[in-house]
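Before relying on records like the one below, remember that each one covers exactly one chain. Contacts with other chains, cofactors or solvent are not represented anywhere in the record.
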Amino acid sequence: MRVTVLVTVLVLVLGLGGVLLWQHSYDLNEQSVTINHGGHLLHGVLATPTTGTRHGLVVHLHGDGPVDATHEGGYRPIWEANAKAGYATLSWHKPGVANAPGNWLDQSMTDRAEEAVAAIAWARARPDIDGDRIGLWGASQAGWVLPKVVARTPVRFVLAVSPAINWLQQGRFHLLAGNPTEAQLTRSDTTRRLLATQASFDDYTRAMGGETHGMTPDRWRFITKNHTADATPDLPALRGVPVLLTLAGHDRNVDTADTERGYRTALAEGGALQVKHYPDAAHSLVKDTIERSDLKLTLTALFAPRALFATGFLDDQQQFLRDLG
């Protein structure tokens, strides 16, 4: 009896292990790359299709936070969709993440754009990349970076995923979406007044009665540097460029109506804008029902990572790239 139980357990373990390996086996090739950007090194990953010798390229621009090149593996289903459309993908660790040099909290949105421009120049010099078919994929905070990149170097397309328009308005929307207390609203108002005067972190700490509420000196410096970000004056750079704007039905981070209005207004003349809405999606384009449950999120990420994303999201991005050729 004991032997039978042990054998059954072993079979289950081996079976689950096989499922994990199969689900996390993607139809693409990955290689580590290093890009020189003005004396600074970007450490990243180039993921290429398994067939063909010369490919278009999707350059990934991250949202907020200490994100590594693969977003802890979460990007790979997107990369696979790109590869099926004949496109490679380039992504890199944010400075200070995964042993990459630097500190991403030292960066402005302009710094991040210049970083991307350097990465595109590096890619155009490669014989396996078609320099005329290089475009951008950017999520959330990257919404302030995408048009800055396009203003600096030609790109074939832009995939904008849950981008925001105005930093302060986006922050307020996110706060209100969480049903804040009066104390939280007061802290937000105080923070905005401090930012307007370029106050120091010590000023912030004093104004908060000695409580930092999770704020750090690095994060305060980052916010001080970027809180005036507004994509509105930069968005016209996208005119004439095919843009796929992806918006989530359960976005609690970004006011999607404001974003759509901003893109449509800026690109009304000479624009090639497509807008896709995903009613079942959260801000990250993961299904909202999955994102709200830690258990569902963990199990889906382990056993069905492609199923994390909103219905149609991967297929639509793949089709967008196929239509570009």
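The longest strand covers residues 129-139.
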